[in-house]
Please model this.
Amino acid sequence: MKIISIALLVVLGCGLAVFAAAAPAQGQNGVVIVYASRYGSTAKTAEWIAEGMAGKATVVSAGEAGDLGGYEKIILGSGIYNDKLHVDMAAFLEKQGAEVQEKLIALFVVCGAPPDQAGPYLEMFAEKCQAKPLLARVFNGWMKKELLSPEDYKGLENYYKSVNQPFENYDSTEKAKCFEFGKEILAVLGEMK
Model:
């Protein structure tokens, strides 16, 4: 009987943890940042944007995003791979696109292209959302060869050889710019009240 009770508590605890991940936390204003990240730089960007929002946003991956009905506003972020959104973000939009249209306030992408040349990615993202966000931003990410799948490793190795560039790790993330974007979002939310 004791083992069954403990097992039941564990199952209930896990269920509550999953529910809590999708529901706004106590004292928050109902803003969620949903991101899709392959190797972590988009996830880190989402966390830094949330920091810039002074803890007023919940951060959740697109693959784990459940019912977002309790959120007033949605911010979306995706890594760009082969000129496309991350597959988890595409699937998220396929499933919850109608809900996003009404609540979308901001978009961001993380890619290897210079921010001044990555505008088409933001346009593609907004088009997939069928919405025009109030704010949109491009951020650079990182490449850590030790994290790459064998397929990505080979593809990138061949790409860098073809452009006669060294195939090396890099980290072009900028916490300060992410933080500032979060503050901009927070200011816009304040103006909307």
Remarks:
- The chain has a mean pLDDT of 84.
- The chain has one domain: 2-192.
